[in-house]
Amino acid sequence: AGDKDNFPLDFKLLLSKTGLIVTYKNHLDLYDFSKKLSREIFRVEGSGSILGYVLLKDESKIAIGVNSKVYIKEIDGTDQKVILENKESAVSLIPSFWSPDGAKIYLKETSASDKVGNYWQINVSGTDLNKLPVNIFGEFSLDGKAYAYFDYDGSNPKWLCFNFQPNVLKVYTLAGTFSANKETVVEGGAN
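Request: output the structure for the sequence above.
Response:
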């Protein structure tokens, strides 16, 4: 039958369409189409499972979520480091996307019960972990510079748009026309 740890769980085509990253329970492999080769680019140290990953747009680095840790690693297999370790909580932060300049990673909050919460940002150095004032039920713009989501508090439905650069949250209500009726600068937010 085979080893359950060697069964592919998921795969993603590289943006350049030159290869494929395959997710296993405890490691990631890169399949290079032009060289017709595969190589392991990440392996979980000890026990744990890969919860998610995101590749930098230029395909030079990868951010990987493993249980309570977030790693950054060069795609060539060098320079692996833990940028976040959450020992206190049952909540995991899974890499979701990189900032357009590659200086920050945005993380999606999730728990063992599959409840999901907020987005967080952290510098690639592992400093300045901040919770963003957005929920995860929305969509990112194609360039990754904005995030729009719907919020309903029981009486006032509204669309919100968070621009990561500059740190502005615009709120649009659904009363007739869409117009920015509130603009807020987010303290300590995405620079």
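The chain is about 0% helix and 55% strand.
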